[in-house]
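A quick aside before the break. I want you to see a complete sequence-to-structure record at least once, exactly as it would be stored in a machine-readable document. Don't worry about memorizing anything.
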Amino acid sequence: MQNIKNDLFEFVVGEDGIGIFTINQVNNPTNLFSSAFINAYLEVAKQAIADENIAGVIVTSGRSMFMPGADLRELNKMGGDPAGQLQGMLEMHTAFREIETSGKPFVAAINGTAMGGGLELCLACHHRIVLNNIKIKLGFPESKVGLLPGGGGTVKAPYLLGIQNALMYLLQGLEVRPPKALKDGLIDELAENQEELIAKAKDWIKNNPKPVQAWDNKKHRIPGGNIWTPNGMQVMMGAAGNLTKMTHGNYPAQRYILKVVHDGLQVPIDRALEIEARYFTKLVDSKEAKNMIRTGFMGIQAAKKGKARPKEEPKYEIKKLGILGAGMMGAGIAYVSAKAGMEVVLKDVSMEGAEKGKAYSTKLLDKAIKRGRSTEEKKQALLSRITPTDDPSQMAGCDLVIEAVFEDPTLKDKVTKETEAVLAEDKVYASNTSTIPITLLAKSSKRPEQFIGIHFFSPVDKMPLVEIIVGEKTEAKAIAAAVDYTVAIGKVPIVVNDSRGFYTSRCFGTFASEGIFMLEEGVPAAMVENVAKAKGMPVGPLAVTDEVTLTLGMHVYESDPSPNKAVYQTRMYEIQKNLVNNHERKGKKWGKGFYDYPEGGKKKLWPGLKELYNSNVETLDKETVGKRILHRQALEAYRCLEEGVLRSTMDGDIGSVLGWGFPIYTGGALSYIDFVGMDQFIQDCDAFAETFGPRWAVPDSLRAMAAAGSSIHEFGKATATVG
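That is the input. The structure line, written in tokens, reads:
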């Protein structure tokens, strides 16, 4: 067999008769598990098996990553031909099985991250050796995009990991480092460097001329017991119960994974792979998978790379960052910025306050060290980059300043003028406000064209989204600076236009208010909370209101100078004011809100809610409660799109999923309209408008889109055509 080199791989046979197949997809950003690659690999494998002069094959990578997964661009286009899709899957499985049963050893020399299809490629090899590098990850992330491992992973993982451990990997999309993978049995050996990796692979081939896979070995015993052992049955029953509790039936991928593991362990491996292929084919064509791939992967990845930045602007370098306000938000911004390598000046009204803000980073780093994720040396290096101060003149020399003081326009006016007096004229100034219009705040600035909103979410170190707000006079340079900064600290930016509450705070507010309105109308508090979580929201509207505090909602309302506030906004304010002023229920911070928060105990709904809101009366059914919770957010998101606050449907979806936890299986707050069906969505909102008031009024442009048979993702084109 001759050596081969092309734009997908290189195959070289050494004098020892061992072929090394090096994956190097030069036309892709990384190696991807695609149909073109699979076909090419399987053809080479077939020839190697047939060649008596080849003793075995080592599969490795010529890139920094071995293969981080499937080509989701390809998967996103699949569907519509289930029979053809299934046939292709079965042919792939047959070809992989020919490798496994060939009697010729194949070894995966994994020198970089191997995830999803990349790891399944390795499972089709008889032995797996991994470079012992902390940067390398191994796992099956398919469930995170609404799919299951379809290259054999769902069926084969239990044979290596045991049922319980395999379900953790498969259902949760668990990603592990090499030592953990070795301990669990997912891989067979570790190597300390590239030379040792290849040497060990060659030695194994020489010592194992007739290898047999675990699932073909009649003597192999599944760790922890097979499906019909007492432990196996207990694990499966527990998994089924927990799955229902966690997903509420919203995520078919997890349900199908459980079915494949259950059914696949009771039949021969080839039949099990057919079962896996059939369920994978169902998922590829599901609304949930398409939504999760489009928003959860394609959209977020593009945003994370800075898709929103003005293309004509040069990169804006941020070496030194100034932060005004060392409270929870400012302290969090300081940490993520210093972690990204920036010098940070953290200012507060007193040195004590500034030092306290820096101490937040110390706390996070100590926790990371305790968990083995950092070192004392790294901690000291990061802390050395944060300079606490109470002196405004220290902002001189900063490339970007982010104001994160209390939501008070007067205070923000003061610190803006104070800072601009020392900040270089060509530098950008940003506000972390969550509700106050940027155009209003920019009136305090001498250079409103370089004034922009950079809205973080709490806690900053954990929340991935950053909402960048463009004021009326904000120019491209400031937008580019904000996007470049956000990308540099590893966050996901969306760019929106100015409006009170912008996009995220405005729509998040409807989630909280609609839940509270239903409580006031007589829906039991537990029902409001539980239905919200059953629909996929991370927490209920009452709990999340306690988190952000009822007093903040009152402050936002009172600081809004608009003379004609919406009826529902005033209604929400009156409910909050009653709870705060008459019942001293301010929120979680004070231990009392819609919930009671006993010290050292679990939170419980305040019993007084039943008397205050007559929650024992007959009221709405669960379906209506669920629709009001999700429909209301989606309707407000559409208004933001129509008004031009949002610049694209994708930004709205990303912002809703990452910003306040709108369920990803729907694709996001705007894709949800298509998920429900545009006609059905409008019909529901019209019915709610009759019963619950004008906040449910459907914009004419959405009706026009429905009449034209358009998708929400065709918003600009559809409204232009119809209008």
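Two observations worth writing down. The chain has three domains: 4-285, 320-497, 505-644+646-722. The two ends are 64 Å apart (CA to CA). We'll return to this after the break.
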